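hey
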């Protein structure tokens, strides 16, 4: 039986590819379907935001070690780069597996989430391929031009996919415009991005606006749609349009017109912030007390999409 480091590297890469294929099969057969599954799977999956930072840091360190070793003629740094790359590949695989577990068990769905999941699996596979190619090419080419022609592009592709996958993860957590919203206008023009959208409330004509369009919808868009829109659907519930809002989620209607106390959405936004059911769960753009009171009043008045802005809804305690 072969022995030594080459055999160990081949065994680690081979087993890594086998696990990646198995993970891809699980993700294909058991995609995120918006339904909650086993509590243990949810518990393990919720470590994903912690685990995912390890491969990002390790993969970003590899080119720095390679460059420092090449320019400084330090073989020890070059050897360290190979070791770090192997750790990055396996930690990327662990993060992808944990991410699939979270998506599948945590009642998530949506194209953005699915795209992020498959990019994570792809990043694990590409990182393993880069780690498998590196020692062979380095040995055969003496770290010369052929080494750069094969290993360099693979490493650059892995870094690019890492950035793209990380961006999608940030969009899932903070919304798709989290990175681009504060971008300077000149940079937006250079990247051919559309101008920054004006706040929803500012685009409504106050003379003929409805209460929902002018006051309620902006609250939901600001605080809720990072987890409940067409791209990421938590619990089958979307708040990006009035029709989806009133349709409710997997557990039934979230809003009961005329009855804020019976509305699930009111229960969740008024829970203690450390409660697992509190919304927004990412604790970003929290609703102020006056915002919550306004939502309660709107529901107490019938949760209408056509109620004029100028008409004040009755307080919840007088609604029947």
């Amino acid at each position: 039986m072969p022995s030594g480091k080459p055999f160990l590297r081949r065994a680690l890469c081979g087993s890594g590819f086998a696990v990646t294929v198995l993970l891809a099969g699980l993700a294909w057969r058991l995609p995120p379907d918006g339904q909650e599954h086993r509590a243990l799977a949810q518990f393990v999956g919720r470590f994903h935001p912690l685990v995912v930072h390890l491969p990002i840091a390790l993969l970003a360190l590899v080119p720095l070690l390679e460059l420092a070793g090449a320019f400084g003629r330090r073989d020890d740094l070059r050897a360290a780069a190979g070791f770090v790359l192997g750790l990055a590949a396996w930690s990327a695989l662990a993060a992808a597996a944990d991410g699939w577990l979270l998506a599948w068990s945590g009642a998530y769905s949506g194209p953005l989430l699915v795209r992020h999941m498959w990019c994570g699996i792809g990043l694990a596979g590409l990182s393993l391929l880069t780690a498998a190619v590196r020692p062979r090419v380095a040995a055969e080419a003496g770290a010369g031009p052929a080494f750069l022609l094969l290993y360099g592009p693979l490493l650059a592709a892995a870094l690019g996919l890492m950035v793209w996958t990380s961006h999608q993860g940030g969009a899932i957590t903070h919304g798709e415009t989290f990175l681009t919203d504060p971008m300077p206008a000149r940079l937006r023009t250079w990247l051919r991005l559309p101008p920054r959208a004006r706040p929803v409330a500012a685009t409504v004509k106050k003379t003929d606006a409805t209460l929902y369009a002018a006051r309620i919808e902006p609250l939901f868009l600001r605080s809720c749609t990072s987890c409940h829109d067409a791209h990421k659907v938590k619990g089958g519930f979307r708040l990006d349009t009035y029709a989806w809002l009133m349709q409710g989620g997997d557990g039934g209607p979230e809003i009961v017109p005329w009855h804020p106390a019976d509305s699930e959405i009111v229960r969740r936004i008024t829970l203690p912030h450390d409660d697992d059911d509190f919304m927004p769960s990412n604790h970003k753009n929290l609703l102020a007390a006056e915002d919550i009171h306004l939502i309660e009043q709107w529901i107490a008045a019938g949760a209408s999409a056509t109620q004029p802005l100028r008409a004040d809804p009755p307080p919840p305690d007088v609604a029947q």
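Residues 200-318 form one domain. The CA atoms of residues 56 and 162 lie 7 Å apart.
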